[in-house]
Amino acid sequence: MAEYQIAVIAGDGIGPEVTREAMKVLDAAADIWSFRTRRSVYPFGTEHYLATKEIFPDTAFEEVKHKQAIFLGAIGDPRVPVGLIEYGIIAKMRFELDLYVNLRPIKLFDEALCPLKDKGPQDVDMIIVRENTEDAYVGAHGFTHKGQSTEVATQTMVYTRAGVERVMRYSFELARTRPRKQLTLIDKANAVRAQDLWTRTFADVSKEYPDIKTDHAYIDAACMWMVKNPEWFDVAVTTNLFGDIITDLGAMIQGGMGIAASGNLHPGQVSLFEPIHGSAPKHAGKNVSSPVAAIMAVSMMLDYLGEKAASVAIETTVAELLRSKRLKGVQTGVHPTNEVGDMVVRELGARAAVRV
Ligand code: IPM
Ligand code: MG
Known about the structure:
Elements: E1 3-11, H1 15-33, E2 36-42, H2 46-52, H3 58-65, E3 69-74, H4 84-96, E4 101-107, E5 125-131, E6 141-144, E7 152-155, H5 161-176, E8 182-187, H6 196-206, E9 213-218, H7 219-228, E10 235-238, H8 240-253, E11 261-265, E12 271-275, H9 292-305, H10 308-323, H11 337-355
Parallel strand pairs: 1-2, 1-3, 3-12, 5-10, 8-9, 8-10
Antiparallel strand pairs: 4-5, 4-11, 6-7, 11-12
The structure holds 3-isopropylmalic acid (IPM) and magnesium ion.
């Protein structure tokens, strides 16, 4: 029986409640599809930091490196300085584990969940590939004359040929697995001239993929198209910062932050799965947040681990529950958080029983 070593960091705010539901679904899937998970649960996050002054100790980081996957609930809390926990936990893993692909599917399961007029599941089915180790996120910033009226603040956007090329190659390969075989490059090379590297690399790599239709949109126009004609997108590759922004927009057109999941990948190595949403401190502990995104992150994690049948079944089950209106994934408070995992588990079991 396959056994997977998984690190679990439930984190801040609503992180623990959505993680608990996601783990119920993971356990049910393990029972049905006969695999085992060995989970190491880490307490890192704001609460732990406030109590111990520890963010992510080296010993734990070394352990996490040797897992097959990491599940993260949510990170961020207004009680600590902005960015401290984000850079100490999420960004640390993305950078030090070299998780260069941030895979963010935007798939609408039910028309009723979409705020766009006359758009349905056939119109919203794309994957944004967000570069995950470069750009403004490398942290190269500084202030001179801090606090004075002459203050200057700078932050450098960093792109490397190797970094851009590998995420593009991943995106072309991904486009190849999809029926439409289309890849859109999203950048702002007309204003951020350093992104000319993206333009040139895309042109070079595309020569190796003559079967993939290529397309280009500047990020501002891409935001407009995603609302006006989301059906134009299949796979899109973009920079770290633009990918961060456009996937919040994407989450909304698929039904809200309570649904959207992501995988931070380094193919072949330990990779990290998380809902796209944040820690939503104002909802924390109230049992009103949607754990659907966290459950979908489990589906992505199982796909990555090779448990394809379990992954697809979780996605299909969630999609069906949303479509049949039994599960209102987005509306805070519609279902108590702690009932959603049970509902998905029951349905998963029922579907598996029919299959057998
Ligand atoms: C995300 C988040 C993070 C990011 C934050 C928490 C640093 O918004 O994963 O989309 O900007 O990457
Ligand atoms: Mg974000």
